[in-house]
Design brief:
Blueprint (H helix, E strand, L loop, with lengths): L1 H33 L13 E8 L5 E8 L5 E6 L5 E5 L1 E6 L5 E6 L7 H6 L3 E6 L5 E4 L2 E6 L5 E6 L14 E7 L5 E12 L5 E6 L8 E6 L6 E6 L4 E6 L5 E6 L12 E6 L6 E4 L11 E2 L6 E2 L5 E7 L8 H5 L15 H6 L1 H5 L3 E6 L4 E4 L7 E4 L5 E6 L15 E7 L5 E8 L4 E2 L5 E6 L2 E6 L4 E4 L26 E2 L5 E5 L4 E5 L7 E2 L4 H5 L1 E6 L14 E7 L5 E6 L7 E6 L2 E7 L6 E6 L6 E5 L7 E2 L14 E8 L5 E8 L9 E6 L22 H6 L3 E5 L8 H18 L3 E11 L1 H9 L8 E5 L5 H4 L3 E2 L4 E2 L1 H5 L13 H6 L13 E6 L8 H12 L4 E6 L9 H20 L5 H4 L11
Parallel strand pairs: 47-48, 47-49, 49-50, 50-53, 53-54
Antiparallel strand pairs: 1-2, 2-3, 3-4, 5-6, 6-7, 7-8, 9-10, 10-11, 11-12, 12-13, 13-14, 14-15, 16-17, 17-18, 18-19, 20-22, 21-22, 22-23, 23-24, 25-26, 26-27, 27-28, 29-30, 30-31, 31-32, 33-34, 34-35, 35-36, 37-38, 38-39, 39-40, 41-42, 42-43, 43-44, 45-46, 46-48, 51-52
């Protein structure tokens, strides 16, 4: 009986065990079915970016572009009032009509075309009636635009015939569409056209196969539709410009000298009540210094009162050598030590120099012109009323341009009536900003903001009485300290808004009073930064009678938001503030409706709408609904101290499905200060750097630390900030100390290369476009701009603080090349052989040094690629190799052949 009882008990135990197993199985199966999958490179194609979002003036329509990583993008036009939605494949660059009834857009070439085919395929154009849904699409459109009143639409086709040698280039058809009636008119052979602000006239020039049909014409848009001929016959008609009141029209033309081998251009003015234009500046009767003449390249600009016209002058054009004559010349570039620009810079700027113009002014009612600029005053900035101008002279500092960029300049006030100049600031690094009435200039100089009264030549230091710094106290470059931002003028010269690190100040100008902290010191108190948002792009100055919107950023927590402020009231009012990233605020011009994007690391920056209260904020797009099916990490802000005791912050991305206590492989990405990206969202994307989203989805932790620099010691600064941050995460029990990788690109690539010469804490590293030898890089050229690289080391990002001969030990101390014998970390180097920022031979130097020392190093040279990879195939290739590299060294995955053995040249691209 006892044995039977034991047997039954045992059977019962077994039965219960079976029941538990079955129950557990069926409990777990659904969970497995719901498990979110990690992101693979094959999944990248699903993700889309959202861009070019705009809201119509009436606030009823939203337009934006969704572009997948693979394939054609699409333009979405959706109603914010109902469910109406239009989708235009390959649509881009949308523009609403002023009355919000139409939207026009560019049609891009098929994404599947090769890069060469895309270049040879002209963009098309689409025009959508938002209320009927009727769409017109046209191929090969050069440009398009709406009239300001919304009644007209214009588009110009791409010329079909290419210019033949020795022959002029014909124009192309211009189509004018009346949006009220639907009627269209086509004008053949149009070269340029311009619509006045009040939509009364369209001016257009014609260049046809018959010179007798060439000319400049004006079509009346609001009257009887008649067309008048301003000038006709052989010649060019350029630089169209309407006065603000639409009563005057200016242009330049060489018609008067069109039979010459190098015809001169003249300046013309037409009054709309007259039948013919008047030649107001004739180049053959030049009154300008050095016999300068009217330039075809100088933009025409009116003063706000319409009484002055600014135009460009230049030396008379010289005949170019023929092709045969050029072939006989020796092929030598002479690098002279007194050249203002070195030869590579001259070569890049050659076309720009040929088109260099200098500012002149024509006084409409006094009927005379004055040269304001010349070879020493290449940049001139007129006041709004045109009575004065700021002239910039850099000549005294030309020789220091290679090592001091941006360079110093002297600022002058120019009397536009007489052309006389008087200096008001030497060795400035920034231009001044004109007041609305043209009576004052505000400028930043030597850590302070100053006010210059133009009429009485009196200078006042605006900020010296305040115990608040208006220069960037966090800027750690060995150069003059910059301000926190520009100055913003109030209307009628009432005052000017200036930033400190946290708050906004209003300084009265034409009225007595003391400076006022209009954000009431809230920014400084909360360690947060307020900044003005200009919502109306057409508004030149701030109207203090109207409330303004401020952006908000908490420097410690990285929370963002928006505040409303009425200048003169006590304090800003919070509209919204969250631990998210708010960006791209736009207001409908004629409605109380706003759009913005909101994002976190886990939330895509979709578009949201709200009204002026911001109490209810609604999402109106869903760009990537598939994201819910994939495992995603989480971002957290962490804090630690550098080896020098400096408090630091960084972003730690926890791996998806993080299990406390488990140690994970970790990849560290470095540049300068990255903690501000805490709430930034990253879609899976092939790029020149690893993707934190993808790595976290696949079980990696990701760390982005801040780096603060000591001048003269950028390499050690990076080391002292990054390593203790990594140790902090190891101490937190998250990172596996034996499985930590490091990556950076450009400056981050340099830092990566340097750090692995000083520590073996990293098991693998990837350096993109790194500088490895500062002594040789100092004497290099930035081939993209032609600039010598010296300024970068002496004054800007490299932070050495002086020349190679002043601080030779600093250049050596900060060069990874001289410490390559210490490297124990396998390194992958990325460099494009057409890099215009960091010479790719810097990658070669690093590779050859490590190779000579027998260190594990691989260099990926991408052909015909610049500083950042641009070709899709190469982005995907590097993304794949980057993944394989870290997987091998951080997770012990088998090494692919390219890591194990390399790839012979004859087999390039196959492995």
């Amino acid at each position: 009986m006892k044995k039977l009882f034991i047997s039954v008990i045992r059977n019962a135990d077994f039965f219960i065990y079976i029941l538990l197993v079955v129950f557990a199985f069926y409990s777990i199966v659904p969970l497995y079915g719901q498990t979110k999958k990690p992101i693979t490179i094959e999944d990248y194609a699903q993700w889309k970016t959202l861009s070019q979002q705009k809201i119509s003036n009436d606030g009823k329509w939203l337009v934006y572009v969704l572009k997948p990583n693979e394939g054609n993008g699409k333009l979405i036009i959706q109603s914010l009032e109902n469910k109406t939605k239009f989708i235009k494949i390959r649509g881009s660059r949308p523009v609403f009509s002023e009355d919000s009834k139409w939207v026009a857009y560019t049609i891009l070439p098929e994404d599947s075309l090769s890069e060469k085919e895309k270049k040879n395929t002209k963009n098309g154009m689409g025009l959508l009636n938002l209320y009927t849904g009727e769409t017109v699409e046209v191929d090969s459109v050069e440009n398009f635009r709406f009239s300001k009143d919304g009644n007209w639409f214009f588009y110009k086709l791409v010329p079909h015939k290419k210019k033949k040698s020795g022959k002029k280039k014909p124009g192309s058809p211009l189509v004018i569409k009346n949006l009220k009636t639907g009627a269209t008119k086509t004008i053949k052979y149009v070269v340029n056209y311009s619509i006045d602000k009040n939509s009364k006239f369209i001016a257009y020039s014609v260049s046809s196969n018959k010179e007798s049909e060439d000319g400049l014409y004006i079509k009346n848009l609001k009257g009887d539709g008649s067309t008048i001929t301003l000038l006709s016959g052989k010649g060019k008609y350029l630089q169209f410009s309407w006065s603000e009141d639409s009563k005057k029209f200016a242009f330049v033309s060489n018609k008067n000298d069109s039979d010459s081998e190098l015809p001169l251009f003249d300046l013309y003015l037409w009054y709309t009540e007259r039948t013919k234009p008047e030649m107001i500046v004739e180049s053959s009767k030049s009154v300008f210094p050095d016999n300068m003449v009217v330039s075809e390249y100088g933009e025409l600009k009116w003063s706000e009162d319409g009484k002055k016209l600014f135009f460009g002058i230049a030396p008379e054009e010289k005949k170019e050598l023929s092709k045969e004559e050029k072939e006989k010349l020796p092929g030598v570039d002479i690098w002279h030590w007194r050249d203002v620009e070195v030869q590579p810079q001259q070569k890049i700027n050659a076309t720009k120099r040929k088109k260099q113009t200098y500012t002149a002014i024509y006084h409409i009612y006094d009927k005379y012109s004055v040269a304001l600029g010349d070879r020493n005053f290449k940049r001139v900035y007129p006041s709004p009323d045109g009575n004065w101008a700021i002239g910039i002279n850099q000549k005294p500092y030309f020789e220091s341009i290679p090592w001091r960029y941006p360079n110093f300049m002297d600022l002058y006030v120019i009397n536009t009536k007489t052309g006389t100049r008087r200096i008001f600031l030497k060795k400035a690094l920034r231009n001044g900003i004109w007041s609305p009435e043209g009576d004052y200039i505000v400028y930043y100089f030597k850590k302070h903001w100053w006010l210059y009264s133009v009429k009485d030549a009196v200078t006042k230091n605006l900020t010296k009485e305040l115990d608040v710094p208006f220069w960037n106290v966090d800027d750690d470059h060995p150069d003059v300290k910059r301000p926190y931002g520009p100055a913003y003028w109030l209307k009628n010269d009432e005052g000017v808004l200036l930033y400190d690190k946290y708050d906004i100040w209003m300084f009265p100008v034409n009225k007595k009073g003391k400076p006022v902290n209009i954000t009431a010191g809230i920014g400084r108190k909360r360690n947060a930064t307020f900044r003005y948002i200009r919502l109306d792009r057409e508004e030149k100055y701030i109207d203090p009678a109207k409330p303004i919107i401020l952006s908000f950023f908490n420097n410690k927590t990285k929370a963002t938001g928006y505040y409303r402020l009425k200048i003169g009231q006590n304090r800003p009012v919070c509209l919204v503030e969250k631990d998210k990233m708010f960006r791209g605020l736009q207001k409908a011009k004629n409605a109380n409706r706003y759009i913005m994007t909101i994002q976190t690391f886990e939330e895509f920056p979709d578009v949201y709408i709200t009204d002026g209260t911001f109490k209810e904020i609604h999402r109106v797009t869903d760009a990537n609904p598939q994201q819910k099916n994939y495992a995603w990490g989480k971002n957290r802000l962490i804090e630690w101290k550098s080896l020098d005791g400096i408090p630091l912050q960084g972003v730690l991305t926890y791996p998806a499905n993080y299990i406390p206590g488990k140690k994970y492989p970790m990849v560290v990405y470095i540049y300068e200060r990255l903690s501000n990206v805490l709430h930034q969202h990253y879609i899976p994307l092939a790029n020149h750097r690893f993707n934190a989203t993808v790595f976290a989805s696949n079980g990696y932790a990701v760390f982005k630390p801040d780096i603060k620099y000591t001048i003269g010691h950028p390499g050690q600064s990076a080391l002292k900030c990054v390593v203790p941050g990594v140790l902090k995460i190891i101490e937190m029990g998250i990172a596996d100390p034996k499985r930590i990788g490091l990556q950076g690109h450009s400056w981050g690539g340099y830092e990566t290369a340097y750090i692995i010469t000083q520590t073996d804490i990293f098991s693998a590293a990837i350096a993109g476009a790194p500088v490895s030898n500062m002594t040789s890089a100092y004497g290099g050229i930035r081939w993209g701009s032609g600039l010598p690289r010296q300024f970068q080391y002496e004054r800007t990002q490299s932070r050495i603080g002086g020349s190679l001969w002043e601080f030779p030990e600093r250049y050596i101390e900060n060069s990874p090349l001289f410490f390559c014998d210490r490297v124990k970390t396998p390194l992958l180097i990325l460099h494009g052989d057409k890099d215009g920022a960091v010479p790719w031979y810097q990658g070669i130097e690093l590779y050859l040094a490590l190779r000579r020392l027998g260190k594990p190093v691989i260099m990926l040279e991408y052909n015909d690629e610049p500083h950042h990879l641009t070709k899709k195939k190469n982005k995907y290739d590097f993304t794949k190799r980057m993944w394989e590299f870290f997987e091998h060294y951080l997770r012990d995955k088998p090494a692919p052949e390219w890591i194990e053995k390399g790839v012979p040249f004859l087999e390039k691209g196959t492995k």
